[in-house]
Predict the structure.
Amino acid sequence: MTLTFAPDTDDVFPLILIEKGDDAAIDLLPDHAAAWATANGFKGALGEVLVVPGQDGTIAMALAGNGDQAARARKRFGFAAARTKLPSGTYRLEHNLSPKDLEETALGWLLEGYRFDRYASQSTPQAQLVAPEGLDAQRLEAIAAGEALTRDLINTPTEDMGPDHLEDAIRTLADGHGASVDVVKDEALLDANFPMIHAVGRAASRAPRLIDLRWGSAGPTLTLVGKGVCFDTGGLNLKPGASMGLMKKDMGGAATVLGLAQMIMALDLPLRLRVLIPAVENAVAGNAFRPGDILTSRKGLTVEVNNTDAEGRLVLADALALADEETPDLMISMATLTGAARVAVGPDLSPFYATADGDADALRKGARQAADPVWELPFWAPYEAMIEPGIADLDNAPKGGFAGSITAALFLKRFVTDTPRYVHFDIYGWNPTAAPARPKGGVGMGARALLEALPEMLDL
């Protein structure tokens, strides 16, 4: 798996990027290359590749199609498909792209090199690219590495990615960047006042835990909270088999904030970072929490459990309450939380909620720059009554089926009372159909948009 740029050497082939229908660009090629392109019907379609041989039969250059504006709008990282079509070698991109488009093109090239090969060998692209001039190559490589970490964590099945393995992965990440890690687990969760994390995870054979990573000694404070439900059976409200099949990805929120944390630490951003991961399995056993139970949270709010399959918001609530006690400058939670979000925006968009308009604006701009699409949904106060059952302060699964993502976000917001700036992402964490630079499987959502937006959000 190659997620870095190649060194610039004398043995590099030109890779000429051509817009669809740009006949003038083809006319500017050397005569033999223009004739070869015409003879082979090269049109510059998105991801199209044509290798141009020299007189001795070796590679002289390669042409890559960049499509037209409509094609690029329909497919992010479309150029990345060229990487797998090119023969082995090192290439230098010749282009007339804007800085934004060049960054997306180069990042897509790197991400096309990702393969999940833990359990079976995978063929990898043999073509390498010299970092295009004008780009911050180190930054793009750090982003690609963070995305690869997220994908690896999500793709790994729960047998090898339970709460204990997730803790090990976080400790490895921390060791690589000089961060510290504290863990509270099993019965100690009750002593430390994390009752809902304990309740959700107590039925599993691997102990529930809260993992707390800290990094940085100066600058504004940023706390990331990621849902770490390593597998979700639905608990006593057992999921049907078809719905359980992808539940190894229910820790996608944790995986995504860890990928973002890796980017932040690798780039040495001037901030103080805290990452909180409630890591559990929602299992079925005699001591599983039950529908109808009323749990008392760390915040002191009581929660009626009307569906044990709405467990993610319970473990997040205790972690958010802890984070809120420090009142960071910015708090962000990420979770694979509701099917309602998928119904609303599908698997490709990352819906988010923000208490501050400025943060929402920064995220929208960051998403456009990073080719990481997001969509704002509202913390809609008139729906607050939907999460108030009367018998307890809150309902973890309000009946009726309306506005499920919004009511989940409102539930979480009840546990963030002292921190004025809070952003919540309700992500999917899975790419259901293979696409350039985005193979089928685990995928980070929202992390690149956040990384791009953080300088504005935190005045870095």
